[in-house]
Write a structure and sequence with these properties.
Blueprint: H1 31-37, H2 58-77, H3 79-90, H4 100-117, H5 119-129, H6 131-149, H7 156-179, H8 181-184, H9 189-217, H10 219-238, H11 261-264, H12 273-285, H13 291-304, H14 311-332, H15 341-357, H16 364-383, H17 385-393, H18 398-427, H19 431-437, H20 439-448, H21 450-489
Helix pairs in contact: 2-7, 2-9, 2-10, 3-4, 3-13, 4-7, 4-18, 5-6, 5-7, 5-18, 6-7, 6-10, 9-10, 9-14, 12-18, 12-20, 12-21, 13-18, 14-16, 15-16, 15-19, 15-20, 18-19
Length: 490
């Protein structure tokens, strides 16, 4: 990504000016506005411009953030392996329960959805408590969720222990790992962010093989307990998140250190039409996004047999997703303004077409090619989310802009896989489910194409308004000067 995530926490870095596509004249903001931008309700004086150290302890923080990104999304992306194990553990694999796949898919999709659903709340807690406390507390909750899941004896309790408790812990641990990077890096943030986000790709490559071996040798319960060790390491990693910037102290009349709700929940971002289109277009494209991660493994078993090397498909997704994040994150630096949206549009188009291609692959090599392309553009979609948010709402608003977007993404990512499982239970195969999963990305991508036009029009109107205001001020100044001349003579 670009250096936008250094601004993902409003109080972390004091900005003297906003991006040209952001709100007008932030450099001339009143002291009260600067206090709001820093997340406080009344700062006695604006802090000086902060320059990150560009290294030092930051490299340790980078490795800790990489582990966080990898363990959280590596476990989520490998749910396809666990999905097969859950079918065998809590039900019959021979269609005795026609809704079995529908019910089981809810465990993974609810977990992924809750990670995004909690994001707006996590951004508030991060502002109030700091990155370290939020991350360590989240990892501890994740451990509790996994350990509780290892003791259940039926499918339904997993909706709460794995789908809610574990996922909420992951959400609270994940977001601070991105925010803290802005305390240590600015010039190198693109490189660092690429390494950190590639962590999920590394885990997506390796975890399927590890989980398959564990499930075969020690069973589902002990596998979940081994995954709890990953979360314990994540809790230790969160302790490295040493903030370099002090939190602003309130000097309000009430003496309260807590910012007002109006300053915590930023409604200003919704005034941007481009952001509104983006915030609704992205979720519209994601109804089929998580379907391959949940159901592809079972589809491979049904079409190519249980002995098929299905783990290699998740490996392909993980490798090319990591490559895509590194490549397209760098490419986005050279794409001007909101035209970065077109990279996201191309990502959705390719992902949609590849989802529709899955049922047409009757040769295993064809599925490998599909997963390679899907992973590459999946990495593109993920890595340019923050740069686009920066262009649409400006650096001061980017944290909650991303948080709100992730929260809205939770709905389609939660309901998509269960719908695909329901279609499989009713129709006897996954073909229709994968065909339908490819339609939302195509529609969402088409909607996003409007954003550059909307933003160009808004910028043109803003320039015209600024020019008119400048002419009026110049005319008024000239008139005042004329009116003062006779008085000065007398």
């Amino acid at each position: 990504m670009t250096e936008t995530q250094s601004d993902s926490e409003p109080h972390t870095i004091s900005m003297t000016e906003t991006h040209p596509d952001g709100e007008p004249t932030p450099a001339a903001a009143a002291p009260e506005e600067k206090q709001q931008e820093n997340g406080g309700s009344g700062v006695s004086e604006a802090p000086a411009e902060f320059e990150p150290p560009e290294g030092g302890w930051g490299w340790v923080v980078m490795l800790a953030s990489m582990w966080c990104n990898g363990s959280v999304f590596g476990i989520q992306n490998a749910f396809g392996i666990m999905f097969v194990a859950l079918l065998k553990e809590f039900g019959s694999d021979k269609d005795n329960d026609e809704d079995l796949r529908f019910k089981t898919a809810w465990v993974g999709s609810l977990s992924m959805g809750m990670i995004f659903f909690c994001s707006p709340i996590v951004s508030v807690f991060t502002d109030l408590l700091g990155c370290r406390i939020t991350a360590v507390g989240g990892a501890a909750v994740g451990i509790v969720g996994l350990l509780a899941s290892s003791f259940v004896t039926s499918l339904e309790p997993l909706y709460f222990t794995y789908g809610v408790v574990f996922a909420c812990g992951c959400s609270f641990a994940y977001q601070p790992s991105l925010v803290i990077l802005g305390h240590y890096f600015k010039k190198r943030l693109g490189l660092v962010n690429g390494i950190v986000t590639a962590g999920s790709s590394v885990f997506t490559i390796t975890l399927p093989y590890l989980m398959s071996a564990l499930l075969e040798r020690v069973g589902l319960q002990h596998t979940l307990r081994v995954l709890a060790i990953f979360m314990f390491i994540l809790m230790l990693a969160g302790l490295t998140y040493k903030p370099l910037l002090p939190k602003p102290v309130s000097s309000s009349k009430s003496g309260s250190r807590c910012p007002s709700p109006r300053k915590l929940f930023n409604v200003h971002i919704w005034k941007s039409l481009g952001y509104r289109i983006w915030a609704f277009g992205i979720p519209a494209a994601l109804y089929g996004y998580y379907v391959p991660y949940v159901h592809l493994m079972k589809h491979v078993e049904e079409r190519f047999g249980e002995d098929a090397n299905k783990e290699v498909l998740l490996t392909c997704l993980g490798i090319t997703s990591g490559v895509g994040r590194l490549i397209f994150g760098r490419v986005a630096d050279y794409v001007p303004g909101v035209n970065k949206v077109f990279l996201q549009v191309s990502s959705f188009m390719v992902i949609g077409v590849m989802s529709m291609m899955i049922p047409l692959c009757h040769v295993f090599g064809g599925l490998i090619a599909v997963c390679l392309l899907m992973g590459l553009f999946d990495g593109c979609f993920i890595c340019i989310m923050a740069p686009i948010a920066f262009e649409l709402v400006g650096s001061q608003n980017v944290s909650q802009a991303i948080g709100c977007l992730l929260g809205m993404m939770s709905i389609p990512m939660t309901v998509g896989p269960p719908i695909a499982g329901f279609l499989r239970d009713r129709l006897g195969n996954y073909d229709v489910a994968f065909y339908l999963a490819g339609i939302p990305p195509l529609i969402g991508g088409a909607v996003l194409c409007v954003i550059p036009w909307v933003e160009a029009r808004r910028k043109k109107e803003a320039d015209a308004t600024a020019e008119t205001t400048e002419n009026m001020l110049e005319h008024k100044s000239h008139t005042d000067a004329k009116n003062q001349d006779p008085e000065s003579v007398i």
